[in-house]
Amino acid sequence: MVGTEYLFFITLIIILFGIWEAYKLNRDLSKIPIRIHVNGTRGKSSVTRLIAGGLREKGIVTCAKTTGTLAHMILPDGSEYPVFRPGGPRLIEQVRIVSIAASYNAQALIVECMALQPNLQWLNEYKLIKSTHGVITNARADHLDVMGPEEKDVALALAGTTPLKAKLFTAEDQYLPVFVQAANEHETQLISVGDDDIAAIKEEEMARFSYVEHKENVALALRVCLDLGIDRETALQGMWKAAPDPGVMTVSHIRFFGRRIYFVNGFAANDPESTERIWNMTLERFPDAGKKIFIVNCRIDRPNRSEQLGTKCVKWKHADHYLLIGSGTYFFARAAISKGMPSEKIIFAERQSDSDIFETIIELTEKSSAVMGIANIKGQGLSLARYFRNRSLVKEAAFD
What we know:
The structure is a single chain. The chain is an alpha/beta fold. It contains 16 helices and 15 strands. α1 (2-30) packs across α3 (93-103), α2 (44-58) packs across α11 (232-241) and α15 (354-365) crosses α16 (380-390).
C-alpha cells in the first residue's frame, strides 16, 4: 500500500512539473512577438543568420539559434556561444533557448529546426516554437532514410513545420504545390520567393559577403525582413555584418613549392543537387586546374548519404581522383564502382590525419589542382577545411 501511495505521489509531481514547464514555455513565447522557424534541406543556418542580421540592423532586439555545423546561440549584440548539450542534441533544448531569449527581452527569435523525423518536426513547431513566420528554404534529396524514401516525401516532412494562421516563406519551386496545400490547410499565407526575386540580387551585393553565400538564401531572408518592415538597404547592411556559420563554403588559394591548389570547402553541401552545382561552379572558376579532386568525408552513421553521392557523382563532370576520408568509406566506393567509376580513381584515406591528407593532395596535384570537399562538414570535414584555410594565401568570398 505504501508503495502504491509513493508511486502516486511521484506521478503527481511529474504531472505538476510538466504543467508548470508548459505554462512557463507559453509565457516565455508570449513575450517574444516575432518567432521565426527556419526549416529546409540546405541553407537553414545561413538564412537564420541572415534574417537575424537584418533584424539587428533595424534595432530589433533579436536572439537566434542555429543547429548547423555547430549549434550556436546568437545574442542581441551579435555575439554567440555553443549550445551546451551534455547528453547530445535533444529537442527539449528549444525550451531553454526560448527561455534565454525571453530573459533578454527579445523582440524576435529566429530558430533553425533541429528535427529530422517528420513527427518531431511537427512537435518542434506546434509545441515548442509556435512561429509567427515559417521559413522553408528548399526540399532536396537528403536524409531519405528518415524523411524519404522519395524526394517528394522530404517536402511533405518539411511541410510539417507550416505555422498555423501565420505566414510561410519558401524558395522551393519544384515541390511548391506541397507547401501551397499545407498553407491552405493551416490557414497560413504562403509567400514564394521565385526567380525574379533571386535575379534582383546584384553581383556587387553578393561580393560584399566575406564568404560564399547563395542568392537564394539572401532573397529569402530579404523577403522575410521586408515583411517585418525592414527596408532592403538596412537588411543587407545587417546581413553583410552577420557572422557566417562555421561550416560555410569558402575558397582558399594555396601555393606550395611551385604547386597551386584551389580548395573549395563544400563539405556542408551533402545532397547531390547542391553538391553538383558547387562542383560545376568550381570547374568554371578554375578551368585551368591540372587535376580535379574530390575529398569525400564519409560518416558511418550516414551510409545512405554516402551511397547516394557515390551513385550520383558518376554522372557529373568527372574528377581525376576521389579521396575518401572519415568512416564508412566503403559505402561510397561500392556505390560509385557499381555505377562505372574506375576503382583506380578512388583513394582510401580513412583514419589519416589532416596533414597526411594534405600531403596526399600535394602528391596528386603535380602543378595545379581544384580540390572540393563534399558529403559532411561534421567530423574531419571541419578540421580539414580549417587546415587548408590556415595555409592559404588568398581566401575568396565568392565565385566571381
